[in-house]
């Protein structure tokens, strides 16, 4: 069976959550934009056409939505770390990277973003 490396990219997932430590941030949900890259070995999935051999990006996206929208975060680092953990713990994942942007966080910038990544040891 060939070694096929796949990368899923969840692009510009727009959600609202409580993020920040200022009083207005604690009281009002803010927009966040999530981008996730999930690497996995797709050899078995590509040969078998079996969903259990692949990363189910729909299920993963639903987990991310639920987690982000139903929790509160003081720091962008915490939010990004928790979303990264959800991605990295999916079936067959070898590496993951998540960038979360907070639009309108700074007056003269389009957004502020943070990127975290992880890789499983071989």
Descriptors:
122 residues; alpha+beta; GTP Cyclohydrolase I, domain 2; 4 helices
* The level-1 CATH class: Alpha Beta
Helix content: 25-40%
Q: Count of DSSP E strands?
A: 5
| CATH H level, superfamily name | GTP cyclohydrolase I, C-terminal domain/NADPH-dependent 7-cyano-7-deazaguanine reductase, N-terminal domain
* Gyration radius over CA: 16 Å
Low-confidence stretches: none
Structural class: alpha+beta
Taking all residues together, what is the mean pLDDT?
92
Number of helical elements: 4
The outline comes out as elongated
The string of secondary-structure elements, in order, is EHEHHEHEE
Number of separate domains: 1
Query: How far is the first residue's CA from the last residue's CA?
Result: 19 Å
Largest sheet: 5 strands, mixed
Pathway: Cofactor biosynthesis; tetrahydrofolate biosynthesis; 2-amino-4-hydroxy-6-hydroxymethyl-7,8-dihydropteridine diphosphate from 7,8-dihydroneopterin triphosphate: step 3/4
Enzyme class: lyase
Protein name: 7,8-dihydroneopterin aldolase
Keywords: Folate biosynthesis, Isomerase, Lyase
Write structural notes for this entry:
The chain has 122 residues and is α+β, with helices and mostly antiparallel strands. It has a single domain (5-119), classed as GTP Cyclohydrolase I, domain 2 (2-Layer Sandwich). Helices cover 30% and strands 40% of the residues. The chain has four helices and five strands, in the order βαβααβαββ. It has helices spanning 23-27, 43-48, 57-69, 76-88; strands at residues 5-19, 30-41, 72-73, 93-103, 111-119. Strands 3-1-2-4-5 form a five-stranded mixed sheet. Helix 3 packs antiparallel against helix 4. It starts with a strand and ends with a strand.
């Amino acid at each position: 069976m060939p070694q096929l490396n796949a990368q899923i990219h969840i692009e510009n997932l727009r959600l609202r959550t409580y993020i920040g430590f200022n009083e207005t941030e604690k009281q009002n949900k803010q927009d966040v934009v999530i981008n996730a890259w999930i690497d996995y070995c797709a050899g078995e999935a590509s040969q078998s056409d079996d969903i259990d051999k692949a990363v189910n990006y729909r299920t993963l996206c639903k987990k991310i939505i639920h987690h982000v929208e139903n929790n509160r975060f003081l720091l962008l680092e915490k939010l990004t770390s928790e979303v990264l953990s959800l991605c990295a713990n999916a079936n067959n994942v070898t590496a993951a990277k998540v960038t979360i942007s907070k639009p309108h966080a700074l007056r003269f910038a389009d957004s502020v973003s943070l990127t975290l990544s992880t890789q499983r040891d071989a």
